[in-house]
User: Which sequence fits this backbone?
């Protein structure tokens, strides 16, 4: 019997903070190249600009405004946002994730992806991570492409329609605010990967309604094997 396990992307298969850092590096290089007449080499200036943005992010400030101020520029924030959303990120899967996906595929599990976000941004992440090695394109659901986002039932029902013979669906995510409401309602098994301290969004279980809570929590995806 077919078994289907669908994953969230950000802060589940990969860390969103790694994508942010990748984007900040590209933005830092882009902005440094616009500092005409500066005696500091572009590479050195870009490194400093990156550090300034990371510090601003950690302090809850607008990193792009701080960047312009630091470099004495007036570049449109829209330009920075375009790079952030459309760059090809330099990110990679950690070894635990690779081993888990390899093991699940070897067991004959159908692996899917259900993620919210912009098509280009998420597709670039998927390509950079090499997820095509385990996940067929038809088993990828991105909110912008399907026209609905979690916790909509449609994003999960897609897999139930695609695999009507399957009676064993699992969703693995990280965000109790929206990841598990729909799969719980549909009778899926729901598993939450606990924050290891690097997640961008804090996990709040105390104020989460019972219908949104996962059935199980794990500290590592290896526990799925």
Assistant:
């Amino acid at each position: 019997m077919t078994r289907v396990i669908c994953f969230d992307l950000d802060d589940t298969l990969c860390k969103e903070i790694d994508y942010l850092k990748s984007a900040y590096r590209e933005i830092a290089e882009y902005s440094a190249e616009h500092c005409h007449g500066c005696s500091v080499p572009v590479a050195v200036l870009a490194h400093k600009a990156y550090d300034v943005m990371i510090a601003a992010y950690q302090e809850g400030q607008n990193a792009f405004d701080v960047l312009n101020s630091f470099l004495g520029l007036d570049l449109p924030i829209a330009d920075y946002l375009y790079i952030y959303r459309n760059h090809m990120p330099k990110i990679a899967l950690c070894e635990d994730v690779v081993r888990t996906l390899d093991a699940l595929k070897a067991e004959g599990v159908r692996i899917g992806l259900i993620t919210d976000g912009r098509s280009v941004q998420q597709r670039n992440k998927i390509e950079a991570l090499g997820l095509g090695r385990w996940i067929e394109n038809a088993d990828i659901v991105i909110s912008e492409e399907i026209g609905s986002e979690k916790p909509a039932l449609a994003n999960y029902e897609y897999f139930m329609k695609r695999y009507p013979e399957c009676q064993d669906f699992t969703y693995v995510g990280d965000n109790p605010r929206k990841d598990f409401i729909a799969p719980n309602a549909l009778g899926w098994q729901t598993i939450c990967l606990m924050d290891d301290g690097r997640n961008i969004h804090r996990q709040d279980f105390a104020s989460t309604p019972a219908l949104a809570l996962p059935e199980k929590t794990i500290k590592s995806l290896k526990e799925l094997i």
Remarks:
- The first strand starts at residue 3 and ends at 7.
